[in-house]
Amino acid sequence: MSSLESPNSPPNLSFTIRSGAAASTPTKFSRSISTKEPSFSHFPYTPPRLSAPSTLSKSLHTSPLASPLHSLVPTKIPDLHSAAYRCVSSVLKKDGQILSIAVSNGFVYTGSDANAIRIWRLPEFAECGQLKTKACMVVALVVYNERVYAAYGDGKIRVWRRTSDHGGLKHIRLATIPKTGSYVRSYIAGKDKTQMKHTGPITALAINASDDILYSASLDKTVKVWRISDLKCIETIQAHPEPINAIAVADDGVLFTASDDATVKVWRRNFCRGDQPHSLTVTLPAKSSPVKSLALTEDGGVLYGGCTDGYINYWLMGWFSGQLNYGGALQGHTHAVMCLASVASYVVSGSADSTCRVWIREQDGGQHTCVAVLVGHRGPIRSITAFSGALGEEYQSSTEDGFTICTGSLDGVLKVWHVTCKNMKSSSLQSPAQSGSEYFEL
Fold first, then answer.
1. DSSP 8-state symbol, 39
2. Residue 213 forms beta bridges with which residues?
3. Is there a domain that residue 256 lies in?
4. What is the pLDDT of residues 107-143, one digit of tens each?
5. 189 within domain boundaries
6. What average pLDDT does this structure show over 390-400?
7. 33 domain residue, yes or no
8. How far apart are CA 381 and CA 394, in angstroms?
9. How many distinct structural domains can be found in the chain?
10. Where do Polar residues bias regions lie (predicted)?
11. For residues 205 and 102, what is the distance between their CA atoms, to the nearest angstrom?
12. Where are the beta strands (DSSP E) in 33-187?
């Protein structure tokens, strides 16, 4: 993939490797598909910040660097928004790298190098259980309709059902897909190849709620479609010529896939097509940089793609045409954008430069401003989730718009942040000194 990267791009960053061993042999993931990239497991500090690309479009925005140790008060306010953040919890377990995070109905699930998924209860963010298996490395998590779906390093997906037992939380193991016997019999018989598991490590999971199906993406360049009712594979999509790193699904069932081939592809499901109902509708180029992460706004109006060159490309949905149009790129990270999350009018990005950035989106979707940079991790940030509200009443205010971010890093640390963003339009008549005192007041 070196031909797809610009000379000024940082190293191609990924936590996975191309499958080279037999499917039956457990594979230890590294985080790079490039032999030139140093291992993140030995990162003691935050990587140095590199110079930004010289050519920037009008939509690119930069922001000051804010940390819990510094309070920044710029002399000139760039726009009518201010933000402050606080790390309300930081947890280090002996689980190795944090690879996946999911949140659902007041609970946060985290997956790592270890063989256990940890469960945390909100708002106190206290650990309240674990889901253990013999397999290790929980590389992807998704929770839907009281079921937990977890993809492991052995290429299989484990499923649990969440219930309440006398006021306590309980998870019942339902299945492992695909079942070993089913894909072995299919391979020997030479038929029904869709029942076989991925031939490479799984990288992402997503739920299509409208059609009640589960998608799994893999380094084997395919996306498999699993029917949730019986957990059977009903389709294998030959999606990209290069490994697939991320997938996202819109409310109307449209599927987005991101790949090392520097594109995002858009797929629609047509039930009249028989065995291959998913058809490609459009291919979105990402400026010759491999796409490592995806996020979609709640209304489906904006699609974000984080790339290895540190840029976040975004596309805007035309409300009349229904077509995705390139909107621009957000610049600020110096290394690959490994994870993205969208909440309300904000998008949060986690990067291999060990920082998270919080961007606010204007109503038209075309303009973004970075309002905060979360600093604290000592390794690349691999997983992230965000949701509205605070973890405790002490952080809530009637005049502030707050939300919570959970970040997992390859340094093995899980952090919880509360971000408070205040719209300053109502106080725009204040003097510059009064307004400036509220900007990045930590």
1. P
2. 208, 227
3. yes
4. 999 999 999 999 999 888 899 999 999 999 999 999 9
5. yes
6. 47
7. no
8. 27
9. 1
10. 26-38
11. 11
12. 81-92, 98-104, 107-112, 116-121, 126-132, 138-144, 147-152, 157-165, 168-177
**Over the stretch 169-227, which tens digit does the pLDDT of each residue have?**
899 999 999 986 554 444 444 555 555 789 999 999 999 998 999 999 999 999 999 99
With tokens 């009712």, the residue in question is 229
Residue with tokens 């390139």: 326
**Whole-model pTM?**
0.76
Name the DSSP letter for residue 311. -
Q: What is the DSSP letter of 166?
A: T
Q: Say if 239 falls within a structural domain.
A: yes
Which element (helix H / strand E) includes 384? strand 381-388
Distance CA 334, CA 243 (A): 23
Say how many residues make up the chain: 442
285 Rama class: left (phi>0) / alpha (psi -120 to 50) / beta: beta
Q: Which residues contact 13 (CB under 8 A, 6 or more apart)?
A: 31, 32, 37, 292, 308, 335, 336, 338, 352, 380
Report d(CA 194, CA 135) in Å as an integer. Answer: 23
Give the integer Cα–Cα distance in Å for 286 and 326: 9
CA–CA gap between residue 324 and residue 129 (Å, rounded):
42
Q: Which two tokens stand for residue 385?
A: 């989730």
Give residue 286's domain range: 9-19+59-436
Amino acid at the residue 217: A
**Domain containing 418 — which CATH number?**
2.130.10.10
Q: Which amino acid is at 158?
A: R
Per-residue tokens: 279: 């058809």
Query: How far is the C-alpha of 249 from the C-alpha of 401, rounded, in Å?
Result: 27
Of 218, 220, 207, 246, the residue nearest 339 (C-alpha): 246
CB of 176 closer than 8 Å to CB of 191: no
CA distances from 322 to 254, 281, 285, 319 (A): 12, 12, 18, 5
**Whole-angstrom distance, CA of residue 352 vs CA of residue 334:** 8
Cα distance between residue 2 and residue 65, in whole Å: 30
Q: How far apart are CA 127 and CA 113, in angstroms?
A: 18
Q: Which residues are within 8 A (CB) of 160 and not within 5 positions of it... i.e. 6 or more apart?
A: 131, 147, 148, 150, 171, 172, 173, 174
Kindly calculate the radius of gyration of the chain based on its CA atoms and give it in whole angstroms: 21
Contacts of 56 (CB under 8 A, 6+ apart): 331
Q: Going along 322-361, which residue ranges are E strands?
A: 324-330, 337-343, 346-351, 355-361
Query: Across all residues in the chain, what is the average pLDDT?
Result: 77
